[in-house]
# Entry
Amino acid sequence: MSILVIAEHDNSSLKVATLNTIAAAKAIGGDIVVLVAGANCAGAGEAAAKADGVSKVLVADNAAYEHQLAENVSLLISEIGKDYTHILSPSTSNGKNILPRVAALLDVEQISDIMSVESEDTFKRPIYAGNVIATVQSTDSIKVITVRGTAFDPVASEGGSASVESLDVVKDAGISSFVKEEIAKSERPELTAAKVIISGGRGMQNGENFKLLEVVADKLGAAVGASRAAVDAGFVPNDMQVGQTGKIVAPDLYVAVGISGAIQHLAGMKDSKVIVAINKDEDAPIFQVADYGLVADLFDALPELDSKL
Amino acid sequence: MKILVAVKRVADANVKVRAKADGSAADLANVKMAINPFCEIAVEEAVRLKEKGVATEVVVVSMGDKACQEQIRTALALGADRGIHVETDVDLQPLAIAKMLKAIVDKESSELIILGKQSIDGDNNQTGQMLAALAGIPQGTFASEVVIEDGKAAVTREIDGGLQTISLSLPAVVTTDLRLNEPRYASLPNIMKAKRKPLDVVSPADLGVDPAPGVTTLKVEAPAERQAGIIVESVEELVDKLKNEAKVI
Ligand SMILES: Cc1cc2nc3c(=O)[nH]c(=O)nc-3n(C[C@H](O)[C@H](O)[C@H](O)COP(=O)(O)OP(=O)(O)OC[C@H]3O[C@@H](n4cnc5c(N)ncnc54)[C@H](O)[C@@H]3O)c2cc1C
Ligand SMILES: Nc1ncnc2c1ncn2[C@@H]1O[C@H](COP(=O)(O)O)[C@@H](O)[C@H]1O
# Structure
């Protein structure tokens, strides 16, 4: 078997999601090749070569791939991907955007968001917001798969010594262009990589009150997340949303503050190792998944938590 | 500009669907069905573009068994002009759906095709991207804003780190994210009017597509359940438990 892993990176460095995806590739077994498509992305290519278990890194360095435009990158992947039995990408927003396009160009189905590898053609994946787990088998000649990062422990980022090859395949579909990006800057860890997350919901009442969470987050080295209700109400930006249609997280500790525990929110965090819920309503569904529940007003509990840490 | 909107019939978002005891499928007996929330947003966006005079016609398509016509009627009540039902009892997967949509796009000369980003039952997040690939046209996925101007679509997308804006030539595919708009409620007169709007029924064969699935579901099961936890009495107790029992801080 030969597996092509699509790297998630910011041109200069590799994102952890790539290491989770390489772990899924290892579980399938076979020769693992990583594709880094980007612009001035030698740094990401070098990082990929050091990852454990990788035999070769292909670097496609061209302006056409700078912003990961799906129209261009999918043409590249579908062309070189023909030589592989599996094409894997993390289920990040880039992976979700690009990979179905690759599958369609190769005339095969895509298997989204796998959480385990049962065999080379059989995988488990969550459906119905994770309330049902399906075991699915693909008969396609090339298996195109996105990988749920939280389900696979990342491979070591150091120690490997893969060869690096540059690809001069330039695919520019010429039908889309990048205009601008507003990337939220934060000193805190990224949500999907954080060991501790503290999230706020509608109960926070406004964006200003998220400061109460932030001071606690800073003490714990935590990332700050949110429910969709908090995002919709404009308290915080969209990239903080945890849930079925937001980010899927599984930190060692997840603290949900003023969040009721709707199905869609639970779908994004219920695989966390330890869950804490702080809510003034003792009947809130979040308590059904919480290891430690505190029935309290968050405006009392958060300052107290801050002082006791 | 003609807009095509794809809508899927799914279990209502408020229902906690479970696996059947025999592991054959999700148990949908007596479950309330609805239009996929993302598809409802897609319909709303198309109708707003028509109200603004950008679009001339909004056609809505749904694929599946006879019951999907209920969701097509809902979309018509929200303001779509006419419906197409691709009737089949086959368990449809994204590639087949995308191929059938491509056939309809060709026939209808649709210039903008709006889909949900994800169906909340299968959680695939694939169909729009596949359609765009098959049609050789650009895509604006996870859209939180769509502006049609100078023969192009400027789409603001929700990405992992924040927001990205891209410019697409038309025709193009857009898939909706939750913040694109807030769908209206259908008024009673509009629900009545929708009953008289045209609704064509076609088969996969009419569209020249074999809908056979490429992926088989071997079994379904419940996820690992969490152990019920405890209620702590104070912040002090919570901190103590996290430090000394769970050892996570
Ligand atoms: C298609 C679809 C997709 C969705 N995707 C997501 C998703 O990805 N992520 C997501 O989170 N949601 C998602 N949702 C929304 C979800 O259904 C819920 O509406 C949302 O999660 C509710 O957010 P919340 O818990 O913050 O708000 P609410 O349900 O309003 O809960 C607020 C909670 O705060 C508590 N509270 C209020 N004041 C205080 C106080 N002073 N002290 C302590 N507690 C207090 C209340 O008791 C209550 O339990 C989706 C919905 C749909 C239809
Ligand atoms: N059976 C269907 N009929 C019509 N549209 C569909 C169907 N299945 C999926 N779609 C469209 O594709 C979108 C994404 O679905 P999915 O790729 O399954 O997550 C949905 O929001 C719909 O717009």
The longest helix of chain A spans residues 16-28.
